């Protein structure tokens, strides 16, 4: 079944678009949320997103995306929200966000896991929608960890775009289909 990648900057409306695609698929929805909540602001954002989603949707909070995707009901629509959060989780758990120097192992793991996610998404009978931040349009940050995150997020988005049947770019709430 198709893999759809929904790209956009922060606060662009990309999650809303991803949620609409998932809702319109006509199947049960599993939301993969690879986030460790570490502060009140993040907890409030997570709570707001949960309230916005239909009550029948299942949320799986797990950093092991290949495992979570493989374990999802094959006929369900899977919504991964978000790729950038997952990349930061992988780097954070591996120490790569500290200064970028300890991220080599996390980067290797991430590349392998992105390939697995792309393959699993393509093999599933149900729709898979991946919401991803399109980062790096601004200044290059001075911190090594932030630069590593941008690089790895860009690599992951390109790999998933190559595997995707559909790629959408959301800017200011407007959606453009990319060829």
Give a description of the structure:
- The chain is an alpha/beta fold.
- Helix content is 46%, strand content 20%.
- The chain has 6 helices and 7 strands.
- A 7-stranded mixed sheet has the order 3-2-4-5-1-6-7, with helices on both faces.
- Helix 3 runs parallel beside helix 5 and helix 4 (83-93) packs antiparallel against helix 5 (104-123).
- The chain is globular and about 45 Å long.
- The mean pLDDT is 90.
For the sheet with most strands, the description reads: 7 strands, mixed
Q: What structural category arises from helix and sheet content? A: alpha/beta
Radius of gyration: 15 Å
Identify the quaternary structure here: single chain
Average pLDDT, rounded to a whole number, is 90
Strand content: 15-25%
How much helicity do the residues have?
A: 40-55%
Number of separate helices:
6
Tell me the name of the CATH class: Alpha Beta
CATH fold-level name: Rossmann fold
- The tally of structural domains comes to 1
Net shape: globular
Strand order of the largest sheet: 3-2-4-5-1-6-7
Which architecture does the CATH hierarchy give at level 2? 3-Layer(aba) Sandwich
CATH superfamily heading: P-loop containing nucleotide triphosphate hydrolases
User: What is the ordering of alpha helices and beta strands?
Assistant: EHEHEHEHHEHEE
Give the secondary structure arrangement, pairings included.
Elements lengths: L2 E6 L5 H11 L4 E4 L7 H13 L5 E3 L4 H7 L5 E5 L1 H11 L10 H20 L4 E6 L10 H20 L2 E6 L2 E5 L1
Parallel strand pairs: 1-5, 1-6, 2-3, 2-4, 4-5
Antiparallel strand pairs: 6-7
Helix pairs in contact: 3-5, 4-5, 4-6, 5-6
